[in-house]
Specification:
alpha+beta, 3 strands, Arc Repressor Mutant, subunit A, 4 helices, 15% strand, disordered C terminus, 3-stranded antiparallel beta sheet
Length: 75
């Protein structure tokens, strides 16, 4: 997954593995950031998921509307 895939996605959440791939770090690093409160997280059963729009905001990506289908502009 890259930044453009994240912006074009219609999914409300991304997995820890997808976020790690996007950020270029290990999944354990993403899990630690979620546990520390540095990344937003949702727990669904035993799974940890990351809401897509807050992740985009965390990365500094601007969107063109509430659906989040804007262009990728990283700061």
């Amino acid at each position: 997954m890259d930044l453009n895939d994240l912006v074009r996605s219609s999914s409300a959440v991304v997995t820890v593995a997808e976020a790690a791939d996007l950020l270029g770090v290990d999944v354990r690093t993403v899990s630690r950031a979620m546990n520390n409160g540095d990344l937003p997280a949702l727990r669904v059963g035993r799974r940890l998921l990351i809401p897509r729009l807050p992740l985009m905001a965390y990365l500094g990506v601007e969107t063109d509307g509430p659906a989040g289908s804007g262009s990728a502009i990283a700061s």
